[in-house]
């Protein structure tokens, strides 16, 4: 029988002390896991590994551990071990339980809130390992401490038995093995590359500590071992020599400094390359801060001030010349900044940005002093660095002039808009779409087949400039790119304004062949490098035109790949009506079919009697009605939204595919050539 709802005198439901629920122990974590690990998707799943590994890294940062091992085991199990001090097992005076059980089952319990157990740490506000326990169907912790081997197991955070001593140990350490709870996570499948990259990064940041990674799910097992004595010096070399682009250093010596000031440990390294891309990576207590923060701000300030002072002193900059800007001195740089601080203040739940003002002061002082000394000791490198910065300044001024030209043109052509853009009548960006189409032929079909109310068409002539290899001034000298920038309405570079985007669906619609794929990657490069917010806000899409038109009598179906084609043919051969993505033909095509007229351009037409197959070589071969029905009609079209889950991996891929260096691209092709099916040349 349902409980009767209590109401107040005015008829509203009651709200009193009995309506306040208190979640005890680890219940809050299972109730709202996203609050503790960000999400229950792929990132949240891997965050469990980071949290346990962070405890081992903290032991290493304190000088207590020299070896850390992470294993991926069959059955979705993860095991992480270190040779640190081992979690204490004596009775905790507040909880009256073993300190080990207290740490594993209590939020905000650990050795990082006071005292001198940890000078610095990267744990998630003391909730790390207990959160992992709460979100695991099974967890087992083993501790070697003071000669004894202790163990305790848990099911979804609840101890199965009290901490017990089961043997002896000659060394100290902790091993945690766990299985993520499938009731919590949408998919439990660990990515070995994701884990490997994270552990490699941690090994660079904790020099002198050996980090081993083993994936025992595979045969043969995947085994890696990292030990870097050079710290960030080794990290910077890896970042620009990792084989993805083979960037060449623009200086002979890599800048490196490691010093403590005001109880803040500062470590930084950088090198200039012959590239234009800026690659800055920052960490606080070994935690990656993708949005930077005060430590990165301090580095940038020291870099800009020191190089300007040097350029003035050595007469590279004349008295009346303006100073180099922050962008000038950062072009082509590969830099890493790491601070270790007692009380890090992170902004946001995901710790994306460091907020400690004292970190800026410390980094600025350490890097500024060390860079001044570096330039004095290495004048040849100083000259190369300044020359690169001066070249960047010259390009910046040229780009500014080109950008202003584009903006002025955009204002003047505000009514007619650029090039051959056929705009839509709607002025509401939320309902407006722009299709970027290759060639006048496809553009003509798209213009005739579209819904003029909300669909705009911008045809491109040929392949646009590869912006991965071009500076802003050269890029904006391209008519096609200028037209696209003006059509988008957002401007570009430091004038970019997403709120002025004229269409909330920008659709790349190219032919399903090699040339179409090349144009698509050129456009994706342009958006990734110069309009990343359009991608991150979900406004960029790729159209999926069909590859085949299959007709039997009056019935027509479109197949978007070879598998669908074979499925339709199989159903036709069995005289069964096709299902799925089939589209009935327009009336005028029915009449043509009745007359028995055969489509031109058809191939494989004799496979099944009475069935005609047309393989589309390009969008221009489709008449407007077909293009609308298959590719542009919102009710039945297929479109892929462009997303970037891992910006760093995407960055590497664009470097490989679109950069100047042939070597990495050749290796990529050789590695993946056999994966390519049905290459249409």
Automatic annotation (TrEMBL):
<dbReference type="InterPro" id="IPR013759">
    <property type="entry name" value="Topo_IIA_B_C"/>
</dbReference>
<dbReference type="InterPro" id="IPR034160">
    <property type="entry name" value="TOPRIM_GyrB"/>
</dbReference>
<feature type="binding site">
    <location>
        <position position="511"/>
    </location>
    <ligand>
        <name>Mg(2+) 1</name>
    </ligand>
</feature>
<dbReference type="GO" id="GO:0005524">
    <property type="term" value="F:ATP binding"/>
</dbReference>
<dbReference type="GO" id="GO:0006265">
    <property type="term" value="P:DNA topological change"/>
</dbReference>
<feature type="compositionally biased region" description="Acidic residues">
    <location>
        <begin position="592"/>
        <end position="603"/>
    </location>
</feature>
<feature type="domain" description="Toprim">
    <location>
        <begin position="432"/>
        <end position="546"/>
    </location>
</feature>
<keyword id="KW-0799">Topoisomerase</keyword>
<dbReference type="GO" id="GO:0003677">
    <property type="term" value="F:DNA binding"/>
</dbReference>
<protein>
    <recommendedName>
        <fullName>DNA gyrase subunit B</fullName>
        <ecNumber>5.6.2.2</ecNumber>
    </recommendedName>
</protein>
<feature type="site" description="Interaction with DNA">
    <location>
        <position position="463"/>
    </location>
</feature>
<keyword id="KW-0963">Cytoplasm</keyword>
<dbReference type="InterPro" id="IPR013760">
    <property type="entry name" value="Topo_IIA-like_dom_sf"/>
</dbReference>
<keyword id="KW-0067">ATP-binding</keyword>
<dbReference type="InterPro" id="IPR001241">
    <property type="entry name" value="Topo_IIA"/>
</dbReference>
<feature type="region of interest" description="Disordered">
    <location>
        <begin position="583"/>
        <end position="608"/>
    </location>
</feature>
<dbReference type="InterPro" id="IPR018522">
    <property type="entry name" value="TopoIIA_CS"/>
</dbReference>
<dbReference type="GO" id="GO:0005694">
    <property type="term" value="C:chromosome"/>
</dbReference>
<dbReference type="Pfam" id="PF02518">
    <property type="entry name" value="HATPase_c"/>
</dbReference>
<keyword id="KW-0238">DNA-binding</keyword>
<dbReference type="InterPro" id="IPR000565">
    <property type="entry name" value="Topo_IIA_B"/>
</dbReference>
<feature type="binding site">
    <location>
        <position position="438"/>
    </location>
    <ligand>
        <name>Mg(2+) 1</name>
    </ligand>
</feature>
<keyword id="KW-0547">Nucleotide-binding</keyword>
<dbReference type="Pfam" id="PF00986">
    <property type="entry name" value="DNA_gyraseB_C"/>
</dbReference>
<dbReference type="InterPro" id="IPR020568">
    <property type="entry name" value="Ribosomal_Su5_D2-typ_SF"/>
</dbReference>
<feature type="binding site">
    <location>
        <position position="513"/>
    </location>
    <ligand>
        <name>Mg(2+) 2</name>
    </ligand>
</feature>
<dbReference type="InterPro" id="IPR003594">
    <property type="entry name" value="HATPase_dom"/>
</dbReference>
<keyword id="KW-0413">Isomerase</keyword>
<comment type="subunit">
    <text>Heterotetramer, composed of two GyrA and two GyrB chains. In the heterotetramer, GyrA contains the active site tyrosine that forms a transient covalent intermediate with DNA, while GyrB binds cofactors and catalyzes ATP hydrolysis.</text>
</comment>
<dbReference type="InterPro" id="IPR013506">
    <property type="entry name" value="Topo_IIA_bsu_dom2"/>
</dbReference>
<dbReference type="GO" id="GO:0005737">
    <property type="term" value="C:cytoplasm"/>
</dbReference>
<dbReference type="Pfam" id="PF00204">
    <property type="entry name" value="DNA_gyraseB"/>
</dbReference>
<dbReference type="Pfam" id="PF01751">
    <property type="entry name" value="Toprim"/>
</dbReference>
<feature type="binding site">
    <location>
        <position position="511"/>
    </location>
    <ligand>
        <name>Mg(2+) 2</name>
    </ligand>
</feature>
<comment type="function">
    <text>A type II topoisomerase that negatively supercoils closed circular double-stranded (ds) DNA in an ATP-dependent manner to modulate DNA topology and maintain chromosomes in an underwound state. Negative supercoiling favors strand separation, and DNA replication, transcription, recombination and repair, all of which involve strand separation. Also able to catalyze the interconversion of other topological isomers of dsDNA rings, including catenanes and knotted rings. Type II topoisomerases break and join 2 DNA strands simultaneously in an ATP-dependent manner.</text>
</comment>
<dbReference type="GO" id="GO:0003918">
    <property type="term" value="F:DNA topoisomerase type II (double strand cut, ATP-hydrolyzing) activity"/>
</dbReference>
<dbReference type="InterPro" id="IPR006171">
    <property type="entry name" value="TOPRIM_dom"/>
</dbReference>
<keyword id="KW-0460">Magnesium</keyword>
<feature type="site" description="Interaction with DNA">
    <location>
        <position position="466"/>
    </location>
</feature>
<dbReference type="GO" id="GO:0046872">
    <property type="term" value="F:metal ion binding"/>
</dbReference>
<dbReference type="GO" id="GO:0006261">
    <property type="term" value="P:DNA-templated DNA replication"/>
</dbReference>
<dbReference type="InterPro" id="IPR002288">
    <property type="entry name" value="DNA_gyrase_B_C"/>
</dbReference>
């Amino acid at each position: 029988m349902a409980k009767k709802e209590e109401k107040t005198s005015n008829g509203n439901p009651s709200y009193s002390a009995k309506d306040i629920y208190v979640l005890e122990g680890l219940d809050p974590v299972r109730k709202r896991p996203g609050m503790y690990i960000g999400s229950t998707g792929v990132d949240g799943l891997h965050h469990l590994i980071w949290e346990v590994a962070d405890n081992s890294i903290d032991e290493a940062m304190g000088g207590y551990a020299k070896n850390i091992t992470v294993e991926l085991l069959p059955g979705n199990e993860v095991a992480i071990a270190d040779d640190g001090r081992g979690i204490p097992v004596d009775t905790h005076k507040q909880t009256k339980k073993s300190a080990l059980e207290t740490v594993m089952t209590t939020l905000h319990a650990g050795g990082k809130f006071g005292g001198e157990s940890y000078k610095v740490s990267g744990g998630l506000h003391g909730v790390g390992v207990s959160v992992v326990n709460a979100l695991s169907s099974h967890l087992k912790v083993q501790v070697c401490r003071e000669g004894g081997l202790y163990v305790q197991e848990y099911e979804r955070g609840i101890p199965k038995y009290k901490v017990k001593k089961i043997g002896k140990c000659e060394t100290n350490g902790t091993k945690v093995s766990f299985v993520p709870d499938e009731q919590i996570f949408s998919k439990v499948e660990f990515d070995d590359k994701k884990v490997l990259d994270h552990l490699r990064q941690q090994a660079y940041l904790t020099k002198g500590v050996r980090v081993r990674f083993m994936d025992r799910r595979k045969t043969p097992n995947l085994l890696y071992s990292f030990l870097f004595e050079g710290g960030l010096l080794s990290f910077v070399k890896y970042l620009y020599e990792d084989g993805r682009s083979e960037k060449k250093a623009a200086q002979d010596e890599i800048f490196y400094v490691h010093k403590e000031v005001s109880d803040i440990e500062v470590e930084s390294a950088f090198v200039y390359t012959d590239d234009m891309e800026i690659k800055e990576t920052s960490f606080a207590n070994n935690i990656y801060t993708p949005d930077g923060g005060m430590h990165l701000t301090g580095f940038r300030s020291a870099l800009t001030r020191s190089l300007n002072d040097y350029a003035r002193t050595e007469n590279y900059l004349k008295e009346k010349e303006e100073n180099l800007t922050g962008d000038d001195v950062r072009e082509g740089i590969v830099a890493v900044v790491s601070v270790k601080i007692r009380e890090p203040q992170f902004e946001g739940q995901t710790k994306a940005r460091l907020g400690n003002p004292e970190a800026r002061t410390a980094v600025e002082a350490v890097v500024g002093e060390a860079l001044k000394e570096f330039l004095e000791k290495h004048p040849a490198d100083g000259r190369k660095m300044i020359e690169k910065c001066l070249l960047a300044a010259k390009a910046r001024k040229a780009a500014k002039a080109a950008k202003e030209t584009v903006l002025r043109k955009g204002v003047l052509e505000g009514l007619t808009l650029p090039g051959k853009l056929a705009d839509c009548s709607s002025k509401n960006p939320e309902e407006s779409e722009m299709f970027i189409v290759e060639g006048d032929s496809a553009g003509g079909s798209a213009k005739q087949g579209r819904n003029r109310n909300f669909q705009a068409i911008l045809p491109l002539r040929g392949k646009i400039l590869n912006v991965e290899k071009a500076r802003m001034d050269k890029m904006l000298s391209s008519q096609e790119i200028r037209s696209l920038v003006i059509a988008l309405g957002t401007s570009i570079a430091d004038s970019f304004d997403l709120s002025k985007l004229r269409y909330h669906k920008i659709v790349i619609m190219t032919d399903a062949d090699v040339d179409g794929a090349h144009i698509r990657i050129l456009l994706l490069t342009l958006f990734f490098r110069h309009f990343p917010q359009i991608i991150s806000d979900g406004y960029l899409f790729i159209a999926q035109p069909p590859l085949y038109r299959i007709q039997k009598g009056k019935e027509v179906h479109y197949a978007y790949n070879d598998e669908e084609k074979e499925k339709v043919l199989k159903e036709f051969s069995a005289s069964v009506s096709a299902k799925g993505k089939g589209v009935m033909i327009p009336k005028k095509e029915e009449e043509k079919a009745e007359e028995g007229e055969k489509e031109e351009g058809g191939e494989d037409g004799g496979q099944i009697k009475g069935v005609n197959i047309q393989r589309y070589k390009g969008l221009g071969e489709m008449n407007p009605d077909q293009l609308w029905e298959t590719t542009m009609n919102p009710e039945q079209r297929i479109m892929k939204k462009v997303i970037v889950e891992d910006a760093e991996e995407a960055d590497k891929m664009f470097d490989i595919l679109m950069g100047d260096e042939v070597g990495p691209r050749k290796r990529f092709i050789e590695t993946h050539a056999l994966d390519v099916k049905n290459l249409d040349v």
